[in-house]
Specification:
eight-stranded mixed β-sheet, alpha+beta, single chain, 44 strands, five-stranded mixed β-sheet, about 30% strand, about 800 residues
């Protein structure tokens, strides 16, 4: 029998108490910790407001599958209801766009555009197609624009739907052909050919004249030539201007890899195309174009006016590598984040202002610019530069309501102070800070009245996240929530309430509602299953490890027994989170929830466990993030050395019986710990580890180590394979064979290196059907059985 959380909410308290007592007495097993997480209960994955602000809608995964259902519950609480059948026709959706009067909102559901009247609740379906519409935006006078790929449409109540702009990566059929003596001879010789061409040209000219005078016709397509690829576009909400991003269609983006797959449905070996390696080649540079839609006029917006665009921050490295000096402008791209999915162009609702984020390909600079439509050029509003690299996070920006003044005031996030904070740039002036301090601002959202910013903050300590607010003109920052682990949030359509998605150490993300002015939160969901919810879990102790290496404080999560035996020293396990730039020491539900349960099991078996947010982790500001520039694996190892000292001094840890493990970046760090500090850890498990950074991707690695040709010393200093001769202790390597993030090839190369070095006390466990993140419970169990057995035989 499977019990849903809706059914669970109605069960008698006495029955729940009995279940809690029974589960508290049940011993935790390795099979429990590595089982399909359905036994825990599904997290709330996405959530949004219903139009009336009285209900919220959200998605959770079904057990034993990948289907996501949509549920609904009232903001005052009650039993959630799953929405099926006809009820799904009335769903709203996340990330709506509001009109200037806040009377309507537009959103995309199932790839189609809908408009909801916020006064009556009436729902209008604008499109019904098999295309995927996106990016709806209202103009100040009620025009709605949206895109299908890079074609743009507009809709206005009472006037219907029409194509607003069309841009093509093709040659203009009206463009004169290239000079050709044979063609000229043919036309001069054959009257019929010449007359047919003249008739064709005349018809085209007449059609264009009719188009200009006929308001029923769609604008003429804009042709950018067949040598470019259209990457992005953004239409002004009044449909007058179009910004287009292109790159060279046949540009050399480097040679991708071919990953073998051995266990396949076909029974034959198969190969999958995978990413390029760092430096093979750089991402392709991009260009920005301004299109006058009515006249089909195209103007390139050059980057030559950006301050510092012609400076070379890598000149010294280029000279040392005997490369030619940089000539002209540095190449740039129009993107705000690492995968190009973040919005990098934003129009004001009156169509008079556009903001564009330009990023140097070397990622040492990013410029927030505005477009001077009259002079067809970019104007720099904010430049952020960093000798290491610009963060892919904290690049949000947008336009402030101007109350019809046309002032063009921007808000933006910037790490210029060393921490991400909120700024306002008024009348084109220098940005003015609305927040400050040794904490971070993220995900800002402007309230419905345009007077208050709401955002995530971690003011109390780096791992405590709340919704905060500040007046758009500045002043004191206030905390709106007191949930400790807010993941994200959204404001109700009227701006009076905040829907927070929050979590705790053993509580997957759930929903709560709080008044925008603050107060007690109403918790709306708890999707945990009884078996998980009623176990007695070890709550992590949040600790501050003093650094002996100039880092100040290293935050950690410690797991240990309730009652220490004062005459006993405990074997130590240290965990290293992955992703490099990720935060695991917080009050939120961890990405590594299985590992957290495994740490409970280790404590039950007599270990103490410490999980650190080493230097490079998220949540601690720019300098913490960039401490690893050109020296990956060095500051982080110092932090783990300090953590080991702290465990010995404060938690009865046994220095002579210490182990370390982690996946991805954590696997890389396990290599570095065993190879560079032999004897410090008696055993380590390197899971899906990087062994040679020259094999990893460009977008991440080039930020930190530049490129192998330009900065070979950084790669030599940072790659574990260069230190493999130092291995003296026990090592387990575990890796999915179809990992398309850190290739299995990394572990194969390390295997060969250890063979050549004639090392012993090491083993490798390959997993034929697993990618970077394992998905099958059998593989999870086998991997962690090996880790547990490694620690049992070497640390006990």
């Amino acid at each position: 029998m499977r019990i849903s959380f809706a059914t669970l909410a109605a069960l008698p308290l006495a029955l729940l108490s009995t279940a809690a007592f029974a589960q508290a007495a049940a011993p935790l097993t390795l099979a429990d910790t590595m089982a399909n997480p359905d036994w825990i209960g599904p997290p709330v994955e996405r959530a949004w407001w219903a139009w009336d602000g009285q209900r919220v809608q959200y998605q959770i995964k079904r057990d034993d599958g990948i289907i996501r259902d949509t549920w609904q519950t009232g903001v005052a609480g009650g039993t959630p209801q799953r929405l099926d059948g006809a009820a799904r026709n009335e769903l709203d959706a996340a990330n709506p766009a509001f009109d200037a009067q806040r009377a309507r909102m537009a959103f995309v559901r199932n790839g189609d555009v809908f408009v909801r009247d916020l006064r009556s609740g009436a729902l209008t379906q604008v499109t019904r197609s098999n295309d995927t519409e996106s990016r709806p935006q209202f103009s100040r006078d009620g025009n709605l624009v949206f895109r299908v790929d890079n074609q743009w449409y507009q809709w206005r109540a009472g006037q219907g739907l029409s194509q607003a702009a069309q841009v093509r990566a093709e040659n203009d059929p009206a463009k004169p052909p290239k000079a050709d003596a044979l063609r000229d001879y043919q036309l001069a010789t054959i009257d019929t050919l010449r007359n047919v061409r003249a008739q064709r040209d005349a018809a085209r000219e007449q059609d264009e004249a009719w188009r200009r005078g006929d308001g029923s016709r769609a604008p003429k397509p804009v042709y950018l030539g067949d040598e470019v690829e259209i990457i992005d576009s953004a239409l002004s909400p009044d449909a007058r201007w179009l910004l287009v991003v292109t790159q060279e269609k046949k540009g050399d983006a480097g040679t991708g890899g071919k990953m073998p797959k051995y266990v396949t449905e076909s029974g034959y070996e198969e190969f999958e195309e995978v990413r390029t390696r760092v430096g093979r080649n750089d991402p392709l540079p991009q260009k920005l174009w301004l299109v006058d839609v009515a006249n089909a006029k195209v103007t390139e917006l050059g980057f030559d006016g950006l301050p510092g665009i012609s400076d070379d921050p890598l000149a010294a490295l280029r000279k040392a590598a005997k490369q030619d000096p940089l000539k002209g402008e540095r190449p740039a791209r129009i993107e705000s984040d690492g995968d190009g999915s973040g919005v990098s162009i934003r129009w004001s609702d009156d169509g008079r202002h556009a903001a564009v984020l330009v990023r140097a390909i070397d990622n040492k600079d990013r410029w927030l610019t505005s477009v001077d439509l009259a002079k067809t050029r970019l104007e720099t509003r904010h430049r952020l530069t960093d000798k290491a690299w610009i963060n892919w996070n904290f690049n949000d920006f947008g336009w402030l309501p101007d109350n019809g003044k046309g002032a063009g005031d921007l808000w933006l996030l910037s790490e210029q102070s060393g921490y991400s904070h909120l700024y306002v740039s008024q009348d084109g002036g220098a940005p003015r800070a609305l927040t400050s301090g040794k904490w971070e601002v993220s995900e800002p959202e402007l309230a419905a009245d345009g007077k208050t910013f709401f955002f995530l903050c971690n003011r109390k300590w780096p791992g405590d996240y709340e919704v905060c607010a500040v007046d758009r003109n500045g002043g004191a920052v206030r905390e709106v929530t007191a949930l400790d682990g807010v993941e994200n949030f959204t404001l109700s359509p009227d701006g009076r309430k905040v829907l927070a998605r929050y979590s705790e150490s053993y509580l997957p993300p759930q929903l709560a509602v709080v008044d925008a002015g603050g107060g007690d939160a109403v918790k709306l969901t708890d999707t945990r299953k009884p078996e998980f919810k009623n176990r007695e879990w070890i709550q992590p102790e949040y600790v501050q490890v003093p650094s002996k290496h100039g880092a100040g404080t290293v935050w950690g999560k410690f797991y240990g027994p309730k009652n220490y035996d004062p005459n006993k020293k405990y074997p130590i396990v240290m965990f290293v989170h992955g992703a490099g730039y990720l935060q695991n020491v917080s009050t939120r539900y961890p990405n590594y929830f299985r590992e957290q349960m495994f740490h409970n099991l280790l404590v039950d078996k007599g270990y103490v466990v410490l999980d650190l947010d080493y230097r490079a982790s998220e949540g601690y500001g720019r300098d913490w993030r960039t401490a690893i520039y050109r020296q990956m694996g060095h500051p982080e190892l110092e932090d783990y050395q300090d953590g080991l000292d702290w465990l010995v001094a404060n938690k009865h840890g046994d220095r002579d019986r210490a182990g370390i493990y982690g996946g991805s970046y954590g696997g890389f760090m396990t290599f570095m710990a065993l190879y560079r500090a032999p004897g410090m850890f008696k055993a380590g498990a390197a899971l899906r580890p990087v062994s040679d950074w020259s094999q990893y991707n460009h977008e991440y690695t080039a930020n930190i180590l530049n490129t192998p040709e330009l900065d070979p010393e950084a790669y030599k200093k940072s790659s574990p394979i260069e230190y493999a001769a130092g291995l003296k202790d026990n090592l387990l390597i575990a890796h999915g064979m179809i990992d398309d993030n850190v290739f299995f090839k990394d572990s194969v190369m390390m295997t060969q290196k250890l063979i050549e070095l004639r090392k012993d006390k090491w083993e490798i466990a390959p997993y034929p059907l697993e990618r970077h993140s394992f998905v099958h419970a059998d593989a999870w169990y086998d991997e962690y059985r090996r880790i547990y057995e490694l620690f049992e035989r070497t640390l006990k």
